[in-house]
Amino acid sequence: MAQIGEANKNDQELVEKTAERGTDYNQYVWHLRCLRCGHEYGANGSDFHLRKCPRCQGGAPGLAIAGDPSQSLPVTAYNPPGLWQPFGPFSQLRIQGEGRIVHLKGQVALDCEGAIVGAGDMRAQLRQVLENIKIALASVGGEIGDIFSLTQYATDMEAFMQAGDIRRDYFAAPFPVTTTIQVMRLYRPEMMVEIAAVAEIPLDRFRLPQG
Q: Which of 96, 143, 160, 208 has the largest count of CB atoms under 10 Å?
């Protein structure tokens, strides 16, 4: 991040002052947050402070952060030579790009009423867990493909590995990096799997959750 400044006059002063020092802000991408609706979006060039919000078509950005585009990378998955190659829906590493990082609490197989789904059934529980993750991400404009890291806890590793086809139904390349741990039990004995996720949601899709 290069500079942070307030909107409108302060941002214009920031651009003018840094221009005096030879900084070309036409080469930067500015990440803006609308004061009216909270939408975040990007804008190029030194006139970023004049751009209207693409969602509500009004309001001035309340905060601007300049990012050097030469340092901007999309989220990219790699399986480096010299390491064993993935045998399932995961990657060895992913490089994080620009966007909003969202950390999801570990999800378990509970429905919206808090009742357990598929007691003693790993496959049914895994599907419910992944559906819960989708719901959580959708609340902030995210998709399951935005996930770049998963930490998975299973009480029966063999049953979890045999359900790999279910994970493949939800994830496509580039796959998230994963850590999978067998545990003695989860907080309710009939639960078999819990998954925590970290996702990066593009700025043009991210929205603050309602409620």
A: 160
Q: What is the pLDDT of residues 57-85, one digit of tens each?
A: 665 444 444 444 444 444 456 565 665 67
* Residue burial 18-44, b: 16+ Cβ < 10 Å; e: rest: beeeebebeebbbbbbbeeeebbbbbe
What count of Cα atoms within 13 Å lies in the side-chain half-sphere of residue 198?
A: 12
Amino acid at 139: S
pLDDT at position 112, please? 87
Report residues of the chain scoring pLDDT below 50: 1-28, 60-75
Q: Is 133 left (phi over 0), alpha (psi -120 to 50) or beta?
A: alpha
Q: Fill in the amino acid letter for 20.
A: E
Distance CA 52, CA 154 (A): 47
* One-letter amino acid of 91: S
Rounded CA separation 201/197 (Å):
12
Dist CA 73 CA 80 (whole Å): 18
d(C-alpha 185, C-alpha 175), whole Å: 27
Residues 6+ apart with CB under 8 A from 150: 90, 176, 177, 178, 179, 195, 196, 197
Alpha carbon distances (Å) from 140 to 69, 135, 144 = 25, 9, 12
